[in-house]
Write a sequence for this structure.
């Protein structure tokens, strides 16, 4: 910087002014650097805080008992702190949401990218953006008042608040992310691929599914991973529809996720129980970090392909 | 020229998949229409002037959400006030100042990581640090600082994108005329990227309006009017989303829940439309 600006400055007579300007430049450089460093500091702060507050309970309960214990009874006289039910519920719930949400999202993205005209696509994109903007408590409210009673009647249960209801809500909530990331990937497929396939006599639909989709595969994989991250981190909406009992997961049982386990006991917990909640947060954080790394790798790969 | 004859299997494959594509696109749109329609149908009749303009009164047995509206506004303004300089500064550093590629990579990785962290974890760390370690208790200021960490990546990303669209020749012209780097950023680069920064603000507002898990245990859920700004910052105040959760889950006031939901939906519509409008304007430029 100084080598660039010094000829211009040397032409000016005021020596004092030059000193002031250079100092100002250095100061602004430092200020902007600090702003950038703050983001890094936040990440370090959150990681260290979660690790430091999450480890004591794990040490006290024992890693194996904590991760693979099947009984969570934090307020019982003889408390048990096994979070296997939460882990499995989060995994099953997320898997269910992916199984339901990804096909619909992928198909919608394909429609947007390849079939629909410009105007229709604009309308659908607005709808997708709006779906993404709806607050999670609103999804929870609808789930609670429409979906849960419907599940209860349809499957003749005592209560409809169960894993199935949570899966449906999560599937709708991850739909927008899946649609927009897969659409970007599908749009980036070079036109020549599709033209070559059409010229060889394949129909349009065959081309889209057998040429375009495989060419966009890492982008679509990124969409799935993003959906997994969204689903595993969602708390409030599923708190309102999943029933919140620490059962081992089954489709029609009232269940508790990793996120809802933290949220539902935080307000009244204390001592080892509270520390165990921090440990659950640490487990969730580790899941999320793995997903983040996978997402970054896939997105980089898909950008290179596009 | 396409071959005229196709086997029956191929025709069926074609038709079924095409139908599925239309069906899924339709399903996505239908979902949105049904959701909005149902919320407004159940909620709008319950949005009364009394609900909007008073606080809850046990003596009159009435429910009002004015304190929650004000808390939400305070959270939005407080967060933007802090996150804007920070986020824009970080973006300026990344696009204009940084010369070490490693440093850029580390900072970008950090912002991407922040984007992926679920809001319940922000809420937990915010509660542990601001409410307990600093002894602030459940308060709007704890909520604001938690939201600052959460919305930082949005501001950084959108600002960075719009900074990148400023033509390199503008910068060279400014530097060539003898202005320093800071002068160039202030007078040339920033004015050109105002639209992008505003878009980032709108997106952040959307995120704040819709946020609940990060606020439940940091800003709390109280619904009492404060006398002045300082008191408001120091006391607990539930945002609209938290109020929705409290009324419908903890107290069984479903109708109030739907009324708040329809207000939130109107806000979401407004925020989305303005972001879209600005985005279109940005593209034109």
């Amino acid at each position: 910087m100084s080598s660039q600006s010094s000829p211009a400055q040397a032409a000016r007579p005021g020596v004092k002014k030059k000193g002031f300007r250079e100092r100002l430049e250095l100061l602004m450089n430092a200020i902007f650097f600090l702003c950038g460093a703050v983001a890094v500091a936040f990440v370090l702060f959150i990681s260290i805080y979660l690790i430091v507050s999450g480890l004591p309970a794990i040490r006290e309960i024992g890693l194996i008992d904590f991760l693979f214990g099947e009984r969570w009874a934090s307020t019982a006289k003889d408390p048990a702190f096994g979070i296997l039910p939460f882990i499995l519920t989060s995994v099953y719930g997320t898997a269910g949401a992916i199984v339901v949400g990804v096909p619909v999202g992928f198909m919608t993205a394909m429609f947007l990218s390849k079939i629909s005209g410009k105007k229709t696509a604009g309308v659908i994109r607005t709808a997708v953006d709006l779906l993404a903007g709806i607050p999670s408590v609103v999804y929870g409210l609808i789930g609670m008042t429409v979906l849960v009673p419907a599940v209860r009647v349809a499957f003749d249960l005592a209560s409809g608040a169960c894993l199935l209801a949570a899966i449906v809500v999560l599937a709708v909530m991850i739909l927008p992310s899946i649609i927009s990331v897969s659409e970007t990937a599908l749009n980036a497929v070079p036109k020549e691929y599709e033209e070559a396939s059409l010229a060889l006599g394949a129909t349009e639909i065959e081309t889209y599914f057998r040429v375009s989709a495989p060419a966009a595969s890492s982008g679509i994989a990124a969409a799935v991973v993003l959906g997994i991250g969204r689903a595993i981190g969602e708390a409030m909406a599923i708190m309102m529809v999943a029933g919140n009992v620490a059962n081992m997961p089954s489709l029609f049982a009232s269940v508790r996720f990793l996120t809802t386990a933290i949220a539902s006991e935080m307000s009244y917990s204390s001592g080892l129980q509270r520390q165990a909640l921090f440990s659950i947060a640490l487990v969730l954080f580790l899941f999320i970090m793995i997903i983040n790394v996978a997402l970054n790798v896939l997105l980089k790969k898909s950008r290179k392909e596009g | 020229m396409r071959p005229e004859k196709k086997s029956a299997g191929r025709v069926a494959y074609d038709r079924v998949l095409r139908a599925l594509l239309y069906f899924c696109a339709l399903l996505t749109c239908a979902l949105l229409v049904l959701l909005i329609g149902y919320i407004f149908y159940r909620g709008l009749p319950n949005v009364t002037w009394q609900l909007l303009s008073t606080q809850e009164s046990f003596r009159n047995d009435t429910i009002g959400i004015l304190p929650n509206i004000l808390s939400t506004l305070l959270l939005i303004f407080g967060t933007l006030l802090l996150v804007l300089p920070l986020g824009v500064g970080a973006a300026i550093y990344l696009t204009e100042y940084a010369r070490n590629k490693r440093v850029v990579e580390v900072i970008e990785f950090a912002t991407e990581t922040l984007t992926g962290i679920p809001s319940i974890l922000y809420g937990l760390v915010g509660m542990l640090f601001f409410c307990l370690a600093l002894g602030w208790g459940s308060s709007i200021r704890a909520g604001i600082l938690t939201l600052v960490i959460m919305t930082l990546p949005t501001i950084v990303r959108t600002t960075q994108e719009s900074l990148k669209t400023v033509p390199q020749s503008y910068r060279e012209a400014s530097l060539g005329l003898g202005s320093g780097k800071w002068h160039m950023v202030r007078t040339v680069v920033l004015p050109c990227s105002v639209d992008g920064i505003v878009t980032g603000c709108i997106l952040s507002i959307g995120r704040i309006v819709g946020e609940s898990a990060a606020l439940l245990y940091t800003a709390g859920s109280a619904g009492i009017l404060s006398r002045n700004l300082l008191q408001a910052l120091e006391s607990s105040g539930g945002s609209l989303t938290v109020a929705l959760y409290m009324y419908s889950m903890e107290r069984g006031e479903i109708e109030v829940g739907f009324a708040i939901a329809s207000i939130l939906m109107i806000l979401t519509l407004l925020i989305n439309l303005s972001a879209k409008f600005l985005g279109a304007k940005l593209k034109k430029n």
Summary: The CA atoms of residues 238 and 252 of chain B lie 17 Å apart. The two ends of chain B are 41 Å apart (CA to CA).
